[in-house]
Amino acid sequence: MSDDRTGGRGNAGAARSGGSAGDSAAESAYSGGVPRARQAPADFVQPARRIAYEVIAAVRESDAYANLLLPTRIQRAALNTADAALATELTYGTLRMQGFYDRVIALAANRPVSAIDPAILDVLRLGAHQLLATRVATHAAVNESVSLAKQVGSRSATGFTNGVLRTISRSSAEEWRDLVLEGSVNADDRLAAEFSHPAWIVRAFRKALQAEGHESELSDLLAADNMAAKVNMVALPGLATAADRERLGLADEFSPVGFVLDSGDPYHLVTATEGRVRVQDEGSQIAALALSRARPIIPGERWLDLCAGPGGKAALLASEARAGGAVLVANELVPARAILVRTALAALPETVPVWEVDGTTIGQTHPDTFDRILLDAPCTGLGALRRRPEARWRKQPKDVADLAGLQSGLIDAALLALKPGGILAYVTCSPHTAETRAIVALAVRKAGGTVTALDTAAVVQSFSAANLDLPAGTGSVQLWPHRHGTDAMFITLLQRAL
Q1: What's the 3-state SS for 6-17?
Q2: Could you tell me if 428 and 489 are in contact, meaning their C-beta atoms sit under 8 angstroms apart?
Q3: 240 within a domain of the structure (yes/no)
Q4: Cβ(19)–Cβ(140) under 8 Å?
Q5: Percentage helix, strand, coil, to 5, in the chain?
Q6: How far is CA 110 from each of CA 104, 125, 142, 146, 398, rounded to the nearest angstrom?
Q7: Could you tell me how far CA 431 lies from the centroid of its own chain?
Q8: Sheet containing 232-235: order of strands
Q9: What is the pLDDT of residues 19-37, one digit of tens each?
Q10: What residues form DSSP beta bridges with 453?
Q11: For the domain that residue 15 is a member of, what is the CATH number?
């Protein structure tokens, strides 16, 4: 995989000196060492590039999720390991650095990208990634992009594609970076250009880091968003066997039940262990454990996962509850996601009830009912841009405002549904302060002294396998990709007064 942190700068020389081992293996596996022209029509596109283009186009045209669509396309095409790796790198790398590549393309084409046919723009982005951030040979990147343009665009688009990519290939990635940055209009725009994030997200991340006194880490955070995330697995406590754990790699740095899978197909492992081992980011594991391990479990406790879809945290909570003699109820309003929750909970020997009710009404329908509630609130997902790179281009500032009312309604309802003395974990996969600290502060203020924030950092550190270096005394925990290697999960523990 290329390191996307610098917009592909570091591989400029290699991009012109020949293919990487992965790309060479992918192409030789297809061609068998015979020149491509003897085997395929002139407009043939190598399968990995074809699939990468199709996924990128689907993201643009129908708001598809790359992390869901790409594995399906790879499986249907029966790609070998090398081709699958190439398709994955091309897809995710192009989507991550799309903003940077659009600026390069605009300079090379001498026109704004809005004036370029969207299908051809996707081809150019894919070609730019190969030229500037991988070791794919220049002739392969350009020629196959031209063949792809011939299939999805007009005859004139073919020449245009060739001309733009030839122009890009004549300058190094470092030279393009300098040209792009010269055109930035202010400091935020410069960071947005270099690290390929919308400027409004740059500003939001700066504010979140400022809240901890770590604004100087902004570039590190943006760079971390452009790196491929580790494959994290969780071994469900009390369910995963010693044999299950032997299939896994090294233990996670912080989560006591997590592992990093260093090779193999994670979903095959999930199937082989009947769900006792699951794919789950280490930050999500920590968020669930913060609730289950906030204090010793008293047998008979009732727990609720209020917004449980797709079910990963619910499965971990259910296994923790089972080990301590508590019972969990999961709730998910959206029927399709409720199905995913039931599937995730199928690993449990006992049936876990899954409700499908409006979470904002839970305080009225079930007041003073639950000892512990997890509210993994619907949010923008800005903390998971490593895994969902297209989300940075799909989300808008108004999404934050639109979600605030729902988040406030859910947290208010959850606090009413707590028993006196009960604990609520408010969690988001977003560091945006309007979705995190602001929502919690408003809920506490409206509660009028009946709710207090626990020392969440102390709770998390108490079960963490290593020092998380968390700011003390804030009542909340913000995990970071650049600092902790996790998604940017926000966690606050609130306790209702007795």
Answers
A1: HCCHHHHHHHHH
A2: yes
A3: no
A4: yes
A5: 55, 10, 35
A6: 10, 15, 19, 19, 32
A7: 13
A8: 250-251, 258-260, 232-235, 277-279
A9: 333 333 333 332 233 333 3
A10: 494
A11: 1.10.940.10
Can you give the three-state secondary structure of 184-253, one letter per residue? Answer: CCCHHHHHHHHHCCCHHHHHHHHHHHHCCCCHHHHHHHHHHHCCCCCCEEEECCCCCCHHHHHCCCEECC
Are 466 and 253 contacting, i.e. CB atoms less than 8 angstroms apart? yes
From the list 51, 146, 290, 429, the catalytic residue is 429
- Containing structural domain, residue 67: 4-175
375 close to 436: Cβ distance less than 8 angstroms: no
Q: Is residue 243 part of a domain?
A: no
pTM for this entry: 0.88
Number of domains in the chain: 3
315 shares a domain with 190: no
DSSP 4: G
User: Is 451:415 a contact under the CB 8 Å cutoff?
Assistant: yes
108 burial level (CB within 10 Å; 0-12, 13-18, 19+): buried
pLDDT tens for each residue of 170-198: 999 999 999 999 999 999 999 999 999 99
Residues 359 and 389 in one domain: yes
Query: Which whole number is the average pLDDT over 121-131?
Result: 98
Q: Are residues 171 and 286 in the same domain?
A: no
Residue 241 in domain: no
- Rounded-to-integer distance, Cα 264 and Cα 81, Å: 10
Which element (helix H / strand E) includes 104? helix 98-109
Which candidate, 15, 4, 127, places its Cα nearest to that of 389? 4
**429 annotated active-site:** yes
Point out the annotated binding site: 307-313, 332, 358, 376
Closest of 127, 147, 144 to residue 56, by C-alpha: 127
Strand partners, 491: 427, 477
User: Which residues, including other chains, have CB under 8 Å from residue 428's CB and lie 6 or more apart?
Assistant: 376, 377, 379, 383, 407, 435, 436, 489, 490
Query: 269 Cβ partners below 8 Å, 6+ apart?
Result: 233, 247, 248, 261, 277
Which residue in the block uniquely carries the two structure tokens 């122009």? 167
Instruction: Return the C-alpha torsion angle 102, 108, 113, 116, nearest 10.
Output: -130
Do the domain assignments include residue 471? yes
Q: Which residue in this structure is represented by tokens 């990995």?
A: 48
Mean pLDDT of the region 340-353: 96
8-state DSSP, 395: -
Question: Taking all residues of the chain, what is their mean pLDDT, rounded to a whole number?
Answer: 90
Q: Are 302 and 311 in contact (CB under 8 A)?
A: no
Strands (E) in 323-459, as ranges, are 327-331, 354-355, 370-376, 418-428, 451-453
Q: Give the residue numbers of the binding site for S-adenosyl-L-methionine.
A: 307-313, 332, 358, 376
* Alpha-carbon torsion (31, 36, 42, 45), positive or negative: positive
